[in-house]
Amino acid sequence: MKREPQRTCIGCRRVRAKAELVRLVRRADGMVGIDRAGAAPGRGAYVCPAPECVEEALKRGRLARAFKGKAEASEEVIRLGR
Ligand SMILES: [Zn+2]
Prior knowledge:
By secondary structure, the chain is of the alpha+beta class. It has a single domain (about 5-80), classed as YlxR-like (Hypothetical Cytosolic Protein, Chain: A). It has helices at about 50-55, 60-65, 75-80; strands spanning about 5-10, 15, 20-25, 30-35, 45, 70-75. About 25% of the residues are buried. The mean pLDDT is about 95. Bound molecules: zinc ion.
């Protein structure tokens, strides 16, 4: 039986199927954007497409911890949490 790839949401920390999560990717300038195709180069992190998870993920230090370095949410990520 084929197992679906799973990832952890950086908001609620639940493990879910990768396909159910939104991939965030940090660009070279440290800004974190949404990787809609799920294949952008760079370190990725995953979050449920739910405002409460995005809000949690945007709390101080969460993104930096997920990306192991400087990371700042871009407007499109902030909007995802509204
Ligand atoms: Zn979540």
